[in-house]
Design brief:
binds S-adenosylmethionine; 19 helices
């Protein structure tokens, strides 16, 4: 975690506390951070993400330290402070700095002033009894793993030998991975200009470059010029799998007689739409049900110099947007729990309810069935989710092929479990293997 430097810590703790409170009421980190002054955003994001990755521990510690849970905003301020104080390894702040700045944050907020002595007492006691308190809460699953109990149980049941690693990877800070826009440059050329500018990075996959140190996107050389796009290495497989299947099978494309028609059924913000267009000369129709998000697809296309037909519509309501001309390929990157990308969005685990899984499974099923109808015979549909839960992946597809006997499952990665290679641990001949969790199923229509 990067230590925020520029503003006094008490001020950052105050803002992080109010962001955490808003997340606990149901807002996403994206929404709450947008409301933070730009000068504070990076520092507050760093503190907020760290807290969310340790929220189970912090809440359990607070239960031991306070017989009665303090009211907001003191509750969230203590959670932020305890998440920082209980960090393993080298402490980010000394005991003195953290306690004095947390107390200062309380004193300067009228709603917390009266609780400043209580906050002081809780934190001082934590530091006095640190090891015993941490050992005490580590026997509780939520405190040990920092996920809700239902989430831990689901991952443990579905991956009996890998569940601990999956949960651990979700608590790490992710790498910043970019996809090179091969329409405008080559990976070698972009890599050379990065090296010339002193950046440290490695290659991953066919078009990926992974920065050693994340940077604000506008500072990534070539980003503003549309030479690259931020996209996780696991997500970079989507367009590649679908386009390679089409390239290998479609004689019309091979002879250059017909432009391949591709539907990106759930397209925003356009990461895979633009990749499809960079990867192969195809005609893409990009749908998304949210108007504002459609604008993001158009922005991404413009920056990267590609063109898609963007339509705001519910992909499953065919009568509202489809002209009855079948598509040669369909990409269905369906709405899901996002359980595979928790390292990038540490709020997701706390915002989701267990009941969301079955609701999303129904929505994915509706979208899959309708997307299948627009696919030409012989064409390919790539279904994908950024989830590790099997209901949204393997089980969804098993049920689909039982209902649709004209669907053939092709060779596919299936569940791609989140993976972090760890800096400095690689054998130099191997490329890093660091990606979020995804599920991919490639289906061909008989
Ligand atoms: C996982 S995101 C897609 C990410 C995108 N493919 C990318 O790579 O950048 C899912 C998207 O589906 C959209 N969506 C949800 N339900 C939809 C529906 N019924 N029809 C069309 N789009 C939908 C959401 O608004 C969201 O933007």
């Amino acid at each position: 975690m990067t230590k925020p430097q520029s503003l006094p810590l008490w001020q950052q703790l105050q803002t992080t506390q109010s962001c955490l409170h808003a997340v606990s009421l149901g807002s996403s980190t994206g929404q709450v951070l947008n409301a933070v002054a730009p000068s504070m955003r990076a520092g507050v994001q760093s503190l907020l993400f760290h807290t969310l990755r340790r929220l189970g521990t912090a809440r359990a510690l607070l239960k031991l330290l306070a017989t009665k849970a303090p009211k907001e905003p003191a509750y969230s301020l203590l959670c932020v402070s305890l998440a920082l104080a209980s960090t393993e390894g080298e402490p980010m702040y000394s005991e003195f700095t953290l306690v004095s700045q947390a107390v200062e944050a309380a004193k300067r907020e009228p709603l917390m002033q009266a609780q400043a002595p209580f906050i002081n007492a809780c934190l001082r006691r934590f530091f006095r009894e640190r090891d015993a308190l941490i050992e005490g809460v580590n026997t509780q699953l939520e405190a040990r793993w920092n996920y809700p109990a239902w989430w831990i149980a689901k991952v443990r049941d579905q991956y009996p030998t890998q569940w601990e690693r999956i949960l651990e990877v979700g608590n790490l800070a992710p790498p910043m991975t970019l996809r090179v826009n091969v329409l405008r440059t080559t990976r070698e050329d972009l890599a050379k200009s990065w090296t010339d500018q002193g950046l440290q990075f490695s290659k991953q996959g066919v078009q990926g470059l992974v920065l050693e140190q994340p940077l604000p996107v506008h500072l990534v050389p070539g980003f503003e010029q549309g030479l690259c796009t931020v996209q996780d290495a696991g997500a970079q497989l989507g367009a590649q799998i679908l386009m390679d299947a089409i390239r290998g099978s479609n004689p019309a494309q091979r002879e250059g007689q017909k432009r391949i028609k591709v539907l990106d059924a759930c397209a925003a913000p356009g990461g895979k739409t633009t990749h499809l267009l960079e990867y192969m000369d195809v005609q893409v129709t990009a749908l998304d049900v949210v108007q504002d998000r459609c604008a993001k697809v158009l922005d991404s296309c413009e920056r990267l110099g590609v063109t898609a037909e963007v339509i705001c519509a519910d992909a499953a309501q065919l009568e509202t947007w489809w002209d009855k001309e079948p598509f040669d390929a369909v990409l269905l990157d369906a709405p899901c729990t996002a359980s595979g990308i928790v390292r990038r969005h540490p709020d997701i685990r706390w915002l989701r309810r267990e009941s969301d899984v079955s609701q999303l499974v129904l929505e994915q099923r509706r979208l899959l069935d309708k997307s299948w109808q627009v696919l030409a015979r012989g064409g390919y549909l790539l279904y994908c989710t950024c989830s590790v839960f099997k209901q949204e992946g393997e089980l969804q597809i098993q049920s689909f092929v039982t209902r649709n006997t004209d669907a053939v499952i092709c060779v596919q990665p299936g569940h791609l479990l989140p993976c972090a290679s760890g800096k400095g641990t690689l054998v130099t001949d191997n490329e890093p293997n660091d990606h979020d969790g995804f599920f991919y199923a490639l289906l061909q229509k008989k």
